[in-house]
Specification:
There is one protein chain. This protein has a two-stranded antiparallel sheet with strand order 1-2. It has a two-stranded antiparallel ribbon with strand order 3-4. Strand 1 and strand 2 form a beta hairpin. Helix content is about 65%, strand content about 5%. By secondary structure, the protein is mainly alpha-helical.
Length: about 270
Amino acid sequence: MNIADKKINFSFIAFTIIVVNATGLLLKYFDLDRYLIFVGFRFYLSFTLPLIIVVRYYLFPKLKEILIHPKYNKTFQPLGWIFLPLIIILIVLYFTKKIDIGDPDYFYEFGLSSIFDYPIYVIWNLPQLLFFVGFLILIQPALKFPFSQTLLIILLLFAYEFIPLNKIKVDYFDLISFVFISTSVSLLIKYFQNIYWISLFIFTVLWSALLSFGSNSQTMIHILFAAQYQTWDGFFDVVKGWGTYLLSAQLGITLFVVSLSALLKKSK
């Protein structure tokens, strides 16, 4: 068999999932971060480690091809995946009078500066996202059912984050949000396979949602934004009781938009 024709064995993918979860649970048990920040660049365990484990010398030509010649090169639909759901959720909240402009702490030093620093945050996160999306594209030839198996692999790669340790309860809306964005990514991997657009999609959807509505997740803030902040209240104040559902709602709309794009792509 020619080196270029070789592919990853599915059993090796299973081994990768086990290693990632074992490492994640160990770090979580000792209350250690599952990410590393090095000269500004973010390296989150589930994004970075899978490609490091599975990549072999005969896969480098394929990885190079993915990076240099992505299969999908249009712009209009990817911008819709990223921005249309946030616009829809803001319009709905505005006309139902459930939202107002907020006055959060660190409005200028965190909020406004994050908008101007968006290109920097993208650069800082791009390597780990290219690792993750590259891994998902590289393993496609080993999958008999690409969409469903890709979704399962993504869910399992992050499973340790949702296993309650040290009496920490699972936030089920976070879990629902994670399933929604994982399903969207699985569809994009199957039908579009543009490593740059999918990486930008993952970052910008989460970045814009957290910047708009806030978050108490120190991990998410440190990865997506600046490492010196612990929480962020968001640019918008939402009626009490609605904030819990916003991320899930936005990512649900995102999944709907991505599904429409996938159906259009499939029909062509």
